[in-house]
Specification:
Largest sheet: 7 strands, antiparallel
Strand order of the largest sheet: 4-3-7-10-11-6-5
Oligomer: single chain
Distance between the termini: 27 Å
Shape: globular
Structural class: alpha+beta
Length: about 325
């Protein structure tokens, strides 16, 4: 898998009905009944069966002779509401809101998982490379991930206990706790399939780097390798692990706090801020985000909204933003 530039330069009870709806839609298309298939698609779109939509949309496109488009090139567009002024109400597009209350203390873990990953979106993805005491390489993606500070650069990764291992630790967590070192690689769309394939619950001795075709690149400050396909790579050390327990006292999640020791930014995605600082151009990085189910996303429409100063507190967002993106073209 190749980047578009030279990196060398550097589920629930609804699932049954969802499955039936998807099957009916597919059978309708295969049988030439576009109307039936589209009606089924509409029913799926109006239900909780979000995961079935991409497959049905593809089938509808093929049957109707249209093209299923790949993600477009990221570009800057205007902010959604350039005429907004302070004090003007902004309402949701579906009218008056009625809320469903959900108390996670009364629900099972699988139900809470489905809600959490679909509600807290989009999430950046840390593609973590680590190494065991015996020298075995490991790669795995984690979307319970985000930056917490920049001086020094620190971030958190949430690593859940593995249901497939009886609630035991995942290889990534074991390796990080034993060595205190790891690398976070940022996922981009040109290698998302290979990166995603590393998420399988493989045995500890499986080398996901070799399995998926990803390329190991020697690190400078830590032992685990970087991933050459990634345009942003961060060599990290472990600062702290915070264990989270459920109501029964069982450990369910480890919050890994890491510190970046060394950044590697490909020249293919590097740019400068208006003041000359090194930054990453999102239109070139083309980062991947995680949503609910097995749905991933790309950021194809980008817009800027400035930060108002005290003298600008009564101005509209478009007035203090100015419309110029912070990326040098």
């Amino acid at each position: 898998l190749q980047a578009p530039f030279n990196l060398e330069t550097r589920n629930s009870s609804d699932n049954i009905s969802c499955q039936q709806a998807a099957t009916q839609g597919k059978e309708g298309l295969m049988g030439g009944s576009n109307t039936a298939a589209l009606l089924t698609l509409g029913a799926v779109a109006g239900s909780s069966c979000v995961w079935a939509l991409p497959k049905l949309l593809k089938l509808c496109c093929r049957s109707l002779g249209c093209t299923w488009q790949k993600p477009g090139q990221p570009r800057f567009v205007d902010m959604p509401h350039p005429d907004w002024k302070p004090g003007v109400k902004q309402t949701p597009p579906f009218g008056e809101q009625e809320y469903i209350q959900y108390d996670p203390a009364t629900k099972d873990k699988a139900s809470s998982y489905a809600l959490v990953i679909s509600a807290i979106v989009p999430r950046p993805i840390a593609l973590v490379s680590s190494m065991s005491k015996s020298g075995a390489q490991n790669v795995a993606p984690y979307s319970y991930f985000n930056v917490m500070g920049h001086a020094p650069p620190v971030f958190c990764i949430g690593i859940n206990r593995s249901p497939g291992r009886g609630g035991g630790k995942k290889d990534t967590l074991t390796n990080i706790e034993e060595s205190g070192q790891f690398v976070v690689n940022i996922m981009s769309d040109w290698y998302v399939e290979a990166a995603n394939h590393t998420c399988g619950d493989y045995d500890p001795e499986v080398d996901e780097m070799s399995l998926t075709g990803l390329t190991p690149e020697p690190s400078q400050r830590v032992t685990p390798p970087r991933i050459k396909e990634a345009a942003v790579q961060m060599e990290c050390k472990l600062r702290q692990v915070v264990d989270v327990h459920d109501a029964s006292g069982n450990p369910t999640t480890a919050i890994v706090i890491g510190e970046v020791l060394l950044f590697h930014i490909s020249k293919g995605v590097a740019s400068q801020s208006p003041t000359g600082k090194l930054i990453v151009d999102p239109t070139k990085l083309r980062p991947i985000s995680r949503l609910g189910g097995t749905i991933y996303g790309t950021s194809t429409q980008l817009f800027e909204i400035g930060r108002p100063t005290k003298p600008q507190m009564h101005m509209g967002a478009a007035e203090y933003t100015g419309g110029a993106a912070n990326i040098k073209k």
